[in-house]
Amino acid sequence: MKVRYLGHAAVLIIHKDKRIIIDPFITNNPQSPIKLQEVPKIDYILVTHGHADHLGDAVALAKRDGSTVIANFELCSYVSRHGVSTHPMHIGGKYVFEFGSVKLTPALHGSSIVEADLPVYAGNPCGFLIEIEGRKIYHAGDTGLTKDMELLRKENIDLAFLPIGGNFVMDLWDAVEAVKMIQPKIVVPMHYDTWPVIRSNPEKFKQEVEKLNVKCVIMKPGDELEL
């Protein structure tokens, strides 16, 4: 399985002949290493919440490739109006797809889509716990630190993507606390430096995390690792 970081909170997972993308913010993403037309054919699109920097190009990709959007019920209801296939879920729910299982985890954040300068409710924000052939990936989405993360320790997570940018999400210090609770084998910082308001220091995060005997990999946009 290959995992490629596309900047901000966008992550591409490639397993055998299936491609899964999380929070496909490509267009207008100053960190994206590729253009929308360079994104490979996508089978499943996982969206943590409705904000534009996470919903991103989900509809465009789903229409282009016939992809299935996996998200909360309300967000799926919204995107289905565009004629795309969806699989609605909610926090705590787990479902086995052809590539593996997906479980929605709690996230402390908002979720809306702006229409005519007004926010439209887009359901509860979430994170994703993805299991593919015994390997587990946790993508926290946009969230503050929450004690619910302690429950993830028993999952023996192989790879965790955690936001560190502050302001809208956890800062690096809260993300270190999250690592203490989750105890993943590898952690990757995300959702930082896209704009000045979420400037952070991934090297400091790595330094603090590795004091906990947890491996931290700072992935630049475009970087890939193998699980």
Name its key features.
single chain; 227 residues; alpha/beta; seven-stranded mixed β-sheet
Concise description?
With 227 residues, the chain is α/β, with parallel strands linked by helices. The chain is built from 5 helices and 16 strands.
Q: Bin the strand percentage.
A: 25-35%
Shape by Cα distribution:
globular
CA radius of gyration is 16 Å
Return the structural class. Answer: alpha/beta
Weakly predicted, low-confidence segments: none
Beginning-to-end CA distance, first to last residue: 5 Å
What is the count of helical runs?
A: 5
The largest beta-sheet arranges its strands as 6-5-4-3-2-1-16
Which bin fits the share of residues in helices? 10-25%
Number of strands: 16
Largest sheet: 7 strands, mixed
- What is the averaged pLDDT score? 97
Succession of helices and strands:
EEEEHHEHEEEEEEEEHEHEE
Structure description:
The chain is an alpha/beta fold and 227 residues long. The protein is built from five helices and 16 strands. A hairpin with a 2-residue loop joins strand 9 and strand 10 (118-121). The longest helix has 11 residues, at 172-182. The protein is globular, with a radius of gyration of 16 Å. The model has no long low-confidence stretch (mean pLDDT 97).
